[in-house]
Amino acid sequence: MAAKKACEALTFSKSLIEEVQRWGCMKQTGVSLRYMMEFGSDPSDKNLLISAQFLHKELPIRIARRALELQTLPYGLSQKPAVLKVRDWYLDSFRDLRLFPEIKDTNDEKEFTQMIKAIKVRHNNVVPMMALGVQQLKKGMEQKIVYKDLDEIHQFLDRFYLSRIGIRMLIGQHVELHNPNPPPHCVGYIHTKMSPLEVAQNASEDARTICLREYGSAPDVNIYGDPHFTFPYVPTHLHLMVFELVKNSLRAVQEHFVDSDKVTPPVRIIVADGLEDVTIKVSDEGGGIPRSGLPKIFTYLYSTARNPLDEECDLGIANAATMAGYGYGLPISRLYARYFGGDLQIISMEGYDLRCAFAGTDAYLHLSRLGDSQEPLP
Fold first, then answer.
1. What DSSP string describes 198-221?
2. Where would I find the H helices in 100-229?
3. For residue 374, what pLDDT is reported?
4. How many other β-carbons are positioned within 10 Å of the β-carbon of residue 283?
5. Which one, of 230, 282, 285, 279, lies nearest residue 256 by Cα?
6. Percent composition of the chain: helix, strand, coil (DSSP 3-state, to 5)
7. Is 319 left (phi over 0), alpha (psi -120 to 50) or beta?
8. Beta strand 277-283 with 360-368: parallel, antiparallel or unpaired?
9. At what angle do helices 329-339 and 151-176 cross, to 10 degrees?
10. How far apart are CA 5 and CA 51, in angstroms?
11. Sheet of 267-273, strands arranged across
12. Which residues of the chain fall below pLDDT 70?
């Protein structure tokens, strides 16, 4: 019986892969923040129908590309159990999209919207599951080659997660346009008058809560900038990025001063609005990062903290916000910044003498305020 089921699965997979290969060769179509905002400002039945018809064709292309890559990863990563599970999620989603008939009217559009909502939920745990797959790979490799010779893995994960951000943004934006009572100044996921100071405040409070839970105390976070300044952006994206940066800074300060009787210095956030970019600087006095470690901080195989997947290999960990995780916070935050034309840079000054009040790390988060940048399509 088991052999029969395996054979059936193999046959199904073969026919599915052939279609995945065909769709994976098709051209992707990127959109800009400005276009999403302008198109979504009138969520009429006609526009929602147009949006659904676009997604009905666009999503299978993007998902097919990632599914194909998941099957051809180097160093045996494709065969790790966690990666196989992620691949199955992508194949299931591709199949669901391709089986959905042509969208012709409002009823079709509503059914399609429910279906892609389910796809978004299915993929909720992709990041921790892929992290688990990378951990499974690392355990079987010599430590000396993990960081040096795995550029292909890093490049794949950058493409994979950047694509995931885009897929979730497109689905989430379409679904949210159905909200009959959207918050003021919101067009789907986009807040047309977002206050970066307010988002930074909320993200900092969330990060301090995690720090308090893990260490019993947390440094203060001081935020500077124009409280009246607003610009169009996606608050959930900004919250994630600032949360990760502040969380890292709080942990660095807390651990740097663990044996000191001095009051821990605050983490400082400065919001500057330029003509083209909004820059958010997060500064700490947590001792800094060794220069040898700086090239690694944007890789997916590096973390200065204990990996939560080392001791727990169940997906339950995906729902727990840990103080320091599997080393994905910085590289994924940089991808979120780049998704709409921004970037993330880290500058560090290492120092362990507690008499030096300035040794620490500065993170510069650049966000494009023009909104004209097209999605980067890996």
1. HHHHHHHHHHHHHHHHHHS----E
2. 106-122, 126-139, 143-146, 151-176, 196-215
3. 78
4. 21
5. 285
6. 55, 10, 35
7. alpha
8. antiparallel
9. 50
10. 39
11. 221-224, 267-273, 277-283, 360-368, 343-349
12. 1-13, 142-149, 301-327, 351-358
Nearest partner of 169 among 181, 161, 157, judged by Cα = 161
Half-sphere exposure of 329 (CA within 13 A, CB side): 25
Identify the three-state secondary structure at position 28.
coil
Q: pLDDT value at position 356?
A: 52
3-class SS of residue 102: coil
Written as one letter, the residue type at 64 is: A
Contact between 155 and 73 under an 8 Å Cβ cutoff? The reply is no
Calculate the dihedral angle through the C-alpha atoms of 48, 52, 55, 56, rounding to the nearest 10 degrees: -170
55 and 171 in contact (C-beta within 8 Å)? yes
CA gap 329, 326 in Å, rounded: 8
pLDDT at residue 372, rounded to an integer? 76
Q: Which amino acid is at 18?
A: E
Amino acid occupying residue 3: A
| DSSP symbols for 54-89 | HHHHHHHHHHHHHHHHHTS-GGGGGGSHHHHHHHHH
Quote the Cα angle for 340-343-347, to 5°.
165
Q: How many CB atoms lie within 10 A of CB 23?
A: 20
Give the H or E element holding residue 279.
strand 277-283
CB 113 within 8 A of CB 178: yes
Tokens 């045996």 found at: 76
What's residue 103's pLDDT?
97
Res 313: pLDDT? 47
Backbone angles phi, psi at 367, to 5 degrees: -120, 130
Phi, psi of 192 (to 5 degrees): -70, -20
Using CA atoms, how far apart are residues 97 and 120, in angstroms rounded to an integer? 12
Both tokens of 340, joined, read 């709409």
pLDDT of residue 2: 46
